[in-house]
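@channel sequence for tomorrow's demo:
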Amino acid sequence: MAKLRVLVGAAAAAAVALGVPGVGAAPSPPLRGCHPVPLSHARPGVEVCLDQLLVTETDNATEQNHTQFTVTDHHQTLRATVPDWWPLGGPTAGMVVTLWGKMDGGTGLFDVDRWLELTHGSGPGPGGPYQRASLLDVSAGRVPALRMVWVAAVTFLLDPQDTGDGDVHVQTTLPCPSAGLTTESTPPMRGYVDHPPGPLGPGSTNQSDPASNHLQDDPPPGEPVMILGQTRYDFGMGWWELHPIRAWRPLTAAETQQLTSECAADPVPHTDPQSPHGVLPYGAPACTDGSEFGNPPGWQPCAPHCFVSHTAIGQLETLGGGALCNGIQPQLTPSQAGMSESGVAGSPTAGAPLSPGSVQAARDGAPVQVASAQAVGLPNTAGAAAGSGLVASALVGLATALMHTRRRRRTERR
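structure tokens (generated this afternoon):
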């Protein structure tokens, strides 16, 4: 995967890309835009960047919008929070992070404007500290909110929210076990998503073309990929998400074979029994709080969900939600101190490049999509063909319709 940090010297960069032992063991230079200062320099009203901090503990008082956490440089500690929670969410204990922000003299907390985790490795464990969750399990709510996971998926639609919050809805699906999942890249992560370099470069902080929302940070349509992000439920859209996308890469040959086996073992389409709209797959909107497209007849408010309320190094997650968490197992939280900041995935499959035409379409405000999940060549079986068509057609249609509804409502509110 592409390193987030700027490597000094072409020889070092080439050695890291080839996985040469010993290279990269020394402390890395700071991230672009970070001029790190010691924790003691974090003072009220002064914007600073704090680098290479270990998150020791996190607290989520509710399912959304309130995360506090403790970081250390191994000499002193600092308590922090993310005031603008929705674009970034909060970290998990064990992460090594870079923080941008300033102290709040009233609360005594460090208010974070942007944070990046530095040690996700090359993919799901054992290549990194986070496990893979199936796309179906995330979409069906079998994984708690606020957990970092990798998900294997195929992108079929890029929907830039150029008249909204600036996010890019990266709509993904798998034909079997069938489900869809919305993943999103967000403005604070522009140019900092860890992914292979593409035709537009490794990422961009260019602000001259807001309608495109810098799609080079997003998995292109038709690409079978492994995506890293935090699970979250969107109460306005009524679906589960990975939000924000923090890393992605093409699937390895072994991962592709694993998907083939999973598809053959479970080719029958899975549909959401809670859907108020008939037979639809998991990943389609099922409820709403009215904030995105009003309150159409037959729609109900979304129920709360199980979420990760507390993490600490060396301890199991604490889950919040009581009976909502029945059947969900807490995971152990390891320290990531000393782990790799990036990794080279073995035997990646050839990824479909993002075509210039697709980029131009997105710049013009149109979504970029593929016709169906089968069109991307994802491993499939004859018995799964109907499920593939069901998922792709339903999700493309719903995502496109809701996109236009959402844009129309936002235009009317102006």
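heads up for whoever presents: Residues 1-26, 343-366, 369-392, 399-414 have pLDDT under 50 and may be disordered.
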